[in-house]
Amino acid sequence: MKVLITGFDPFGGEKVNPALEAIMALPDTIGDIEIIKLEIPTVFGKSLTKIREAVTKHQPDIIISVGQAGGRFGISPERIAINIDDARIKDNEGNEPVDVKVVEDGAAAYFSNLPIKAMTQAMVSAGIPAFVSNSAGTFVCNHVMYGVLHMIHTEYPHMRGGFIHVPYIPAQVTNKPNMPSMSQADITKGLALCIEAAATHTEDIHIAAGAIC
Fold first, then answer.
1. Fewer C-beta neighbours within 10 Å, C or N terminus of the chain?
2. Sign (positive/negative) of CA torsion 17, 18, 21, 26?
3. Which contacts qualify for 9-17: CB closer than 8 Å, 24 or more apart?
4. What percentage of residues in the chain have a pLDDT greater than 70?
5. Average pLDDT in the 165-174 region?
6. Mean pLDDT of the region 128-155
7. Arithmetic mean of pLDDT over the chain
């Protein structure tokens, strides 16, 4: 089995991106799972182009994209991506789309077809803070999640894919009082557990993971 896992370059004035740092620390294999690691730009459009090139080359069974969500206390597999780009800041090439569809004729939204609850449970059972998220935002993270799922639904129905947000690492919060963070080693461990859960669960487990808002 092949898993393509992607991480963004730093953005928003940060010197590092914990998503990229964590995925690059993953081993090249986990059991019989081949891990293909890919850095992608925090840029609308170009991020998806780079993923598409990697999909064409490697033909992975699973695609997992990972992004930074400063302020979150745990690793959070995303449930849904929506068909909208609505950027509150510029991406790394100065693009700032407002109320623009990711795919003009695409569905309103796509749900992840990864076992997000099994992934979350695997992390929590290992002592890593984690929760299911019901919003991937409207920046490049959601753009990538939606674009990948659209590609899967329309071109690669045998593939599975989704998105995971991770917290800041400690080096990013030295000047951010009361902001949660997680060590890069724990983020990497959590992502490895997610990969294993995704590879071993063809269907998700049935446990509560909803949110009030």
1. C
2. negative
3. 9/39, 9/40, 9/41, 9/42, 9/92, 10/42, 11/42, 11/68, 11/91, 11/92, 11/140, 12/89, 14/68, 14/172, 15/172, 16/169, 16/171, 16/172, 17/42, 17/68
4. 100
5. 97
6. 98
7. 97
**DSSP SS3 for 118:** helix
Catalytic option among 78, 143, 150, 194: 78
Give catalytic status of residue 78 as yes or no.
Answer: yes
165 is catalytic: yes
Is 141 a known active-site residue?
yes
Q: Which residues pair with 133 in a beta bridge?
A: 78
Q: What is the rounded distance in angstroms from the CA atom of residue 114 to the CA atom of residue 175?
A: 35
Question: Hey, is 161 helix, strand or coil?
Answer: strand
Mean pLDDT along residues 40-58: 98
For Cα atoms 80, 15, 83, give the angle at the middle one, nearest 5 degrees. 20
Give the single-character DSSP code of 167.
P
Within a 10 A sphere around the Cβ of 187, how many other Cβ atoms?
Answer: 25
Tell me which residue has tokens 């949110």: 211
Residues 153-172: what's their mean pLDDT? 98
H helix runs in 3-139, sequence order: 18-24, 46-58, 116-125
Contact 180, 113 (CB under 8 A): no
Rounded to whole angstroms, the Cα distance separating 205 from 213 reads 22
Catalytic residue chosen out of the listed positions 21, 143, 150, 165: 165
Question: How far lies 13's CA from each of 86, 91, 172, in Å?
Answer: 19, 11, 11
Q: What is the mean pLDDT of residues 36-49?
A: 98
Number of other residues whose CB lies within 10 A of the CB of residue 211: 10
